[in-house]
Amino acid sequence: MGIENYIRQLGVPATILRRVSFMETYHILEVEVGILKGKLADPIRADKPYQTIATDDIGAFAALAFSRPKDFIGLELEIAGSELTNLEAAKTFSLVMGKPIKFRKLSLPLIRLFLGKEFYQMFRWFNEAGYKANIPDLSVTTQKSTSTVWRNGCGKMAGTNADFGFELLKGDPIIYSN
Asked: What is the topology classification, in CATH, of domain 3-168?
C-alpha cells in the first residue's frame, strides 16, 4: 500500500504534495563536473520537457499548506517550479556561465548496464511520460519564479565565477490563489 493510500485510509485531514525532480540534481558531482567542462549529459531526450523543483520551494509549499490549512486540506498537488528541455537547460547554462554548454544524450541501454534496472526504468519513464505538474495552474507565484531565479542565477557553481543556483531569493513572498 502506498503512503498516500495509507493517509487516505486514516481519514485524517491531509494535504498531499507530490514533488517532481529536484533542481539540485544538477549539483551531483558527475553532472556538475560535466557542465563545468561544457557538457550536459543526460539520458532524457533533448526535446522532452523535464520538470524540476528546488528543495527550498518544496519547503515553502509545505509551510504555506501548514499556515493556511483551510485552503489546502484535501488537496493533492503535484508541485514543480521549472520545466525545460535539456536543450533549453544547456542554453541556460551557457548564458549563465558565459561559455558554450552542449547537450549529449546518454544511451538508455548503457544506463541499465552501469546504473541498473531501477535507473533505467526511471529514465525510460521520464522519456515516455514524465511529470505532469501544471505549473501555471498551481497559481503559486513569487517575485521571481524558481525558473527565473535559475536562469538569472543566485549562487556559485563550484570552480566558476558564474552566478548560478537554485534557491529562491530571501524574502520572496509565495502567494497561493485559486
From this structure: Rossmann fold (3.40.50)
